[in-house]
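Researcher: Next sequence.
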Amino acid sequence: MALKVSDLQTGDEIRPRAKVIQSKTGKPVQFEVMPSTREAVTNWIKFKELTPYDWLFPSRKDKDLPTTTRQYLRIVQKWVASIDLPKSSYATHSLRRTKATLIYRKTGNLRAVQLLLGHEKIDSTVRYLGVEVEDALALAENIDL
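Model: Next structure:
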Protein backbone atom coordinates (compact mmCIF):
# COMPACT_ATOMS: atom_id res chain seq x y z
CA MET A 1 0.00 0.00 0.00
CA ALA A 2 2.98 2.29 0.47
CA LEU A 3 3.38 3.23 -3.19
CA LYS A 4 4.28 6.72 -4.28
CA VAL A 5 2.74 8.01 -7.52
CA SER A 6 6.29 8.13 -8.95
CA ASP A 7 6.63 4.36 -8.33
CA LEU A 8 4.19 3.83 -11.21
CA GLN A 9 4.19 7.04 -13.20
CA THR A 10 6.73 8.60 -15.54
CA GLY A 11 5.53 11.98 -16.79
CA ASP A 12 1.84 11.50 -17.54
CA GLU A 13 2.21 7.79 -18.32
CA ILE A 14 1.67 4.83 -16.02
CA ARG A 15 4.44 2.34 -16.70
CA PRO A 16 3.47 -1.18 -17.83
CA ARG A 17 5.95 -2.59 -15.31
CA ALA A 18 7.05 -1.37 -11.94
CA LYS A 19 9.35 -2.53 -9.18
CA VAL A 20 8.88 -2.23 -5.44
CA ILE A 21 10.94 -3.29 -2.46
CA GLN A 22 9.05 -5.79 -0.33
CA SER A 23 8.89 -4.61 3.27
CA LYS A 24 9.03 -8.18 4.58
CA THR A 25 12.18 -9.26 2.70
CA GLY A 26 13.79 -6.01 1.56
CA LYS A 27 14.05 -7.55 -1.92
CA PRO A 28 12.86 -5.90 -5.15
CA VAL A 29 9.85 -7.42 -6.87
CA GLN A 30 8.78 -6.45 -10.36
CA PHE A 31 5.14 -6.52 -11.35
CA GLU A 32 3.06 -5.86 -14.41
CA VAL A 33 0.44 -3.11 -14.56
CA MET A 34 -2.26 -4.20 -17.00
CA PRO A 35 -3.83 -1.66 -19.41
CA SER A 36 -7.14 -1.48 -17.51
CA THR A 37 -5.24 -0.89 -14.27
CA ARG A 38 -3.08 1.79 -15.89
CA GLU A 39 -6.25 3.57 -17.00
CA ALA A 40 -7.81 3.28 -13.54
CA VAL A 41 -4.63 4.55 -11.84
CA THR A 42 -4.41 7.48 -14.28
CA ASN A 43 -8.02 8.41 -13.49
CA TRP A 44 -7.40 8.02 -9.74
CA ILE A 45 -4.34 10.30 -9.86
CA LYS A 46 -6.32 12.96 -11.74
CA PHE A 47 -9.36 12.61 -9.47
CA LYS A 48 -7.28 12.94 -6.29
CA GLU A 49 -4.98 15.58 -7.89
CA LEU A 50 -1.90 13.64 -6.78
CA THR A 51 1.67 14.70 -7.48
CA PRO A 52 4.60 12.30 -8.08
CA TYR A 53 5.62 12.76 -4.43
CA ASP A 54 2.21 11.82 -3.01
CA TRP A 55 1.20 8.40 -1.78
CA LEU A 56 -0.82 6.66 -4.47
CA PHE A 57 -3.24 5.53 -1.77
CA PRO A 58 -3.05 8.17 0.97
CA SER A 59 -4.39 7.55 4.43
CA ARG A 60 -7.91 8.79 5.02
CA LYS A 61 -6.69 10.42 8.25
CA ASP A 62 -3.33 11.87 7.20
CA LYS A 63 -2.48 12.61 3.56
CA ASP A 64 1.22 12.43 4.44
CA LEU A 65 0.90 8.72 5.29
CA PRO A 66 -0.10 5.79 3.06
CA THR A 67 -3.28 3.80 3.59
CA THR A 68 -2.68 1.14 6.22
CA THR A 69 -3.07 -2.56 5.58
CA ARG A 70 -5.94 -2.46 8.09
CA GLN A 71 -7.77 0.15 6.03
CA TYR A 72 -7.07 -1.86 2.87
CA LEU A 73 -8.69 -4.86 4.59
CA ARG A 74 -11.77 -2.77 5.37
CA ILE A 75 -11.99 -1.63 1.74
CA VAL A 76 -11.77 -5.21 0.45
CA GLN A 77 -14.41 -6.35 2.95
CA LYS A 78 -16.74 -3.59 1.71
CA TRP A 79 -16.21 -4.63 -1.92
CA VAL A 80 -16.89 -8.27 -1.08
CA ALA A 81 -20.04 -7.39 0.87
CA SER A 82 -21.28 -5.05 -1.87
CA ILE A 83 -21.44 -7.93 -4.37
CA ASP A 84 -22.78 -10.47 -1.88
CA LEU A 85 -19.76 -12.73 -1.72
CA PRO A 86 -18.94 -14.60 1.49
CA LYS A 87 -16.48 -12.56 3.58
CA SER A 88 -14.73 -15.69 4.78
CA SER A 89 -13.70 -16.61 1.22
CA TYR A 90 -12.03 -13.32 0.28
CA ALA A 91 -9.30 -11.38 2.02
CA THR A 92 -6.48 -9.05 1.08
CA HIS A 93 -3.94 -11.85 0.88
CA SER A 94 -6.17 -14.11 -1.21
CA LEU A 95 -6.25 -11.36 -3.84
CA ARG A 96 -2.45 -11.54 -4.06
CA ARG A 97 -2.57 -15.29 -4.34
CA THR A 98 -5.20 -15.42 -7.10
CA LYS A 99 -3.08 -14.41 -10.09
CA ALA A 100 -0.12 -16.48 -8.92
CA THR A 101 -2.36 -19.54 -8.61
CA LEU A 102 -3.85 -19.00 -12.06
CA ILE A 103 -0.38 -18.64 -13.61
CA TYR A 104 0.77 -21.81 -11.91
CA ARG A 105 -2.32 -23.78 -13.01
CA LYS A 106 -1.96 -22.62 -16.60
CA THR A 107 1.81 -23.11 -16.93
CA GLY A 108 2.91 -25.41 -14.12
CA ASN A 109 5.94 -23.11 -13.85
CA LEU A 110 6.74 -22.83 -10.14
CA ARG A 111 9.94 -20.85 -10.78
CA ALA A 112 8.04 -18.12 -12.65
CA VAL A 113 5.52 -17.86 -9.83
CA GLN A 114 8.34 -17.79 -7.29
CA LEU A 115 9.92 -14.83 -9.08
CA LEU A 116 6.61 -12.99 -9.41
CA LEU A 117 5.87 -13.37 -5.71
CA GLY A 118 9.40 -12.48 -4.66
CA HIS A 119 9.90 -15.68 -2.68
CA GLU A 120 13.49 -16.61 -1.92
CA LYS A 121 12.80 -20.32 -1.56
CA ILE A 122 10.80 -22.51 -3.90
CA ASP A 123 9.49 -24.29 -0.79
CA SER A 124 7.73 -21.09 0.22
CA THR A 125 6.04 -20.87 -3.17
CA VAL A 126 4.96 -24.52 -3.00
CA ARG A 127 3.39 -23.95 0.44
CA TYR A 128 1.89 -20.63 -0.65
CA LEU A 129 0.14 -22.18 -3.64
CA GLY A 130 -0.80 -25.32 -1.78
CA VAL A 131 0.90 -27.49 -4.37
CA GLU A 132 0.45 -31.12 -3.48
CA VAL A 133 2.37 -34.20 -4.52
CA GLU A 134 -0.59 -35.10 -6.75
CA ASP A 135 -0.17 -31.81 -8.65
CA ALA A 136 3.51 -32.51 -9.22
CA LEU A 137 2.81 -36.07 -10.39
CA ALA A 138 0.08 -34.87 -12.77
CA LEU A 139 2.54 -32.41 -14.34
CA ALA A 140 5.20 -35.12 -14.64
CA GLU A 141 2.74 -37.50 -16.33
CA ASN A 142 2.15 -34.94 -19.08
CA ILE A 143 5.83 -34.96 -20.05
CA ASP A 144 6.83 -37.94 -22.17
CA LEU A 145 10.56 -38.51 -22.18
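Model: Residues 92-107 form the longest helix (16 residues). DSSP finds seven helices and four strands in the chain.
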